Fold this sequence. Notes:
This protein has helices at residues 3-19, 60-64, 94-104, 145-160, 221-232, 277-288, and strands at residues 38-40, 45-47, 70-78, 83-90, 110-112, 117-121, 124-129, 132-139, 178-186, 199-206, 209-217, 246-252, 256-263, 266-271. It has six helices and 14 strands. The strands form two sheets. Strands 1, 2, 3, 4, 5, 6, 7 and 8 form an eight-stranded antiparallel β-sheet that branches. Helix content is 25%, strand content 32%. By secondary structure, the chain is of the alpha+beta class. The model is unreliable at 1-20 (pLDDT under 50).
Amino acid sequence: MNRVNLIVISIFAGLALQSGLAAPSGPLPSLFPELPGWQKQGKAETFLPETLYEHINGAAENFLGYDFEQLAVQNYENGQKQTLIAEIYFHGRLENAFGIYSSEKPLAGDYFPIGSQGYAEEGVLNFFCDAYYVKLNSFDLGRQGKAVLTALAENIAAAIGGKNILPEMLAAFPAPGKIPHGERYILHNFLGHDFLHSAFTAAYEQQGVKFQLFIIRAGSEENAAATLQKYTALDRENQNSVVKPGFLTINDPYNGPIRLFWRGEFIWGMVGPQAAADALLETMAEKSAKQ
């Protein structure tokens, strides 16, 4: 390999590291383990963004919305002709894998530590690990289903070998009133606006009142200011206002009043009744500064 090619590869590797992108740790089919009592049925199928609809036609857009890159699917069968289907989706970033996982996870479920986080339902075990989202399905296994799926999941997680962590920004959400497993990550078009993107959200309930808190990391103070300036342009009462750091309320024509707090590259906000908004937003700001 000549020196020019080495330089080009180094540049792209540096950009990937700076953007938080990662390449798969190996070919996705290599992550499917052998499972005692089960046989792989043929070679794993693989899908790319342009062919994903061939496997999940109705749901492909949701996965593509989280920068889906690759999918591998492997079928297993045992001596009783019972079957398992294992799917490994690669999304390039921990946040994106959490995002697609969080878009499908239930509020109430049998959650347990596997990979970064996982849950089981009847015949289903889903988890995410690093930049991977793994979906396992069994058919007609009865009581042994969860044990079999758990064994398969643990082996896949070990093969991935990623960091079994949640996105660090989730730690900035205050604990009181937070609904368990109500955290989400929206990569594009948060609240229906194309200039609001990459928002972490959490669902809350306090004294019978439900609301949502969110955090947007704009990348720089200048980006945050530009984002808020676009947002205020939608507010007929304040569309000519110059945004300044601190608290502000925007009358979103589609979502109602949104209470916000801006400092540096961060924008914190609340959707819903705002009686306790300022205290909660200040708490998030303090916690985010430590992330």
